[in-house]
Amino acid sequence: MTTELLARREKLLGTGAPLFYKEAVNIVRGEGVWLFDPDGRRYLDMYNNVPCVGHCHPHVVEAMYRQASTLNVHSRYLHEGVLDYAERLTNHHAEELASIVFTCTGTEANEVAMGMARIATGGRGIICTDAAYHGNSAEVGKLKRARDGDPEIRAIPYPQRYRPLREVASESELTDLYLSEVRRAINSFAANNIPFAGMLVCPILANEGLPNIPNGFMSQAAEIVRDAGGLFITDEVQAGFCRTGRWWGYEVMDFVPDIVTMGKPMGNGLPLAGTVARTELVDTFRDQKRYFNTFASSPLQAAVGMAVLDVIETENLRENVAHVGEYLRAELTKIQPHCPPMAEVRGHGLFIGLEWVSDSGTKTPDREGATLLVNRLKEKGFLIGSAGSLGNVLKIRPPLVFTREHANLFLTAFAEIVEEIYGTAP
Ligand SMILES: Cc1ncc(COP(=O)(O)O)c(C=O)c1O
Hints:
It contains 13 helices and 16 strands. The protein is of the alpha/beta class.
């Protein structure tokens, strides 16, 4: 069956269409934190952040069905449900982030954010990190390929403690070291007569590998950017919606950005994303761009987005994430001394990164080791992934309804595999 599906997939979708795991998983059903294959074998989903309130949550499914059975049109009509959702969502943000442009994907939300910053500042230059991913359109994709030398993009080395740009004596020096890279990028725009528009960054540096970020970097970088006339954008496509145990990654970093983009978990699987900002920024953007997106800002998106917020609030998922995430990190940290390749246990809430190295002295990244572990866990029925600029960070990011009992199932399997591969029993 799997072989046949693989052959059909290659023919129909092309040979380059990405798949996870050495032996691909065929999934036919999802429920809560569980995914099921055609034979009824279940996998504990510890990877997917899109179905944030759990796969096929009945409240979300019901809201989707009810709205689709009532009305679904584009956004050029009045519809109270869209406004109710916009109001409830922006109320979860800092007070000044009061208006929103809805989109369907995180890429579009970042495209809107870049446009908004460029229109508001009259600038063009955008700073990102050197291992960022913010989306796949021509404009947003330039951030991923920043090293290609697009004149309007500058990539700074992403701030981290584990493999610092240079060994320095203190945490504050490390912060300053990375802040000087922000200043350097701004100066480089000025030297090339490219007016500066701002900086776009994931507040927890998720795709970079969830590094421990030197204290105060984000808030101080935002100040430097604003002093230079730019706007600071955080991409909450991964960090947002309680993933970190706070509503937004910018809260973890203790500052308020000018523009925030959201996506993935927002619709629990329905394409729903958006860009929130101060009202005057949204007004100017709309005035200049006349932005329209057929499927965005629809009654269906609003009903589903609203249902997701209902579940997060009524099931106390933010609190759940904070508690279970802390527990899982603490238990993994106990395994660490028995597992030489596990150099760091990092992350926030239910977003955990394990730095995998072949030599802790030289900090040599062990991509193969990470891949082996991901595949062995899959064979045992646990789905995680790997990430990071070097591909050697184990990525644990289950739906927000993940409990302590689920964590314990995983910890047992993880310890068994560590013993099997490395011969060291926790
Ligand atoms: C941080 C971040 N921003 C933006 C995106 C793009 O979102 P989408 O795939 O919905 O366009 C991604 C996708 O992985 C992402 O990880």
